[in-house]
Design brief:
By secondary structure, the chain is mainly alpha-helical. It has a domain at 27-129: Arc Repressor Mutant, subunit A. The protein has helices at 23-51, 59-68, 75-81, 89-99, 120-143, 151-172; strands at 73-74, 102-106, 114-118. The chain has a three-stranded antiparallel β-sheet with strand order 1-3-2. A hairpin with a 7-residue loop joins strand 2 and strand 3 (114-118). Helix 2 packs across helix 5. The radius of gyration is 19 Å and the shape is globular. The termini are far apart. One of its GO terms (molecular function) is DNA-binding transcription factor activity. Pfam families: MarR_2. Keywords: DNA-binding, Transcription, Transcription regulation.
Length: 173
């Protein structure tokens, strides 16, 4: 019996650069695209968990679990690893502890700080998100979307923007 591919790769229409009236316009368009991508990522995670019949987690909480990974970190370290637009990381961590996805304990060296790590249930959620991302990466690879320009070059450019922004923040303070 032939197996069905659960997420068929659909051809993506080619997009052509739209000439911006200025570099500033192109930069502002990039910022809007990033915002939309972030919201879409949350929608994708939400849809995946709905398909799995799981309504106990928000997309932000699932992404927090994913970014926590197999590490044991403080809430501040976790906040710096991911984008949690419009969310309170401390509140979401508290909810994840209540739901049994995250274990927390006070640091021995600094009792004000709390270290967090995934429970076995949290590890299972992380695997679901990792599977989702792997399926999408495979689909994007097969479609050629990651090739022109190469995703590595795009990532390099965004890391440069990130560094520039960080320098701007340091300059202000």
């Amino acid at each position: 019996m032939p197996q069905r591919n659960p997420s068929p790769v659909r051809p993506v229409p080619a997009l052509r650069p739209v000439p911006a009236t200025s570099r500033t316009d192109a930069y502002l368009e990039s910022l809007q695209i990033l915002e939309r991508l972030h919201r879409l990522l949350q929608d994708i995670v939400k849809d995946e968990f709905e398909r799995l019949g799981r309504s106990d987690l928000t997309p932000v909480q699932a992404l927090l679990i994913y970014n926590l990974g197999m590490s044991e970190v403080t809430a501040g370290e976790l906040r710096s690893r991911g984008m949690y637009q419009g969310s309170n990381v401390s509140y979401n961590l508290k909810k994840l502890v209540e739901l049994g996805y995250v274990h927390h304990e006070r640091c021995e060296m600094d009792r004000r700080s709390v270290k967090v790590r995934l429970t076995p249930d949290g590890q299972e959620v992380r695997e679901r998100v990792a599977d989702l991302f792997a399926r999408h990466a495979e689909g994007l690879e097969l479609s050629g979307i990651l090739d022109d320009p190469a995703i590595e070059a795009v990532n390099l450019q965004w890391r440069r923007v990130e560094r520039y922004w960080m320098e701007q923040i340091r300059y202000i303070y």
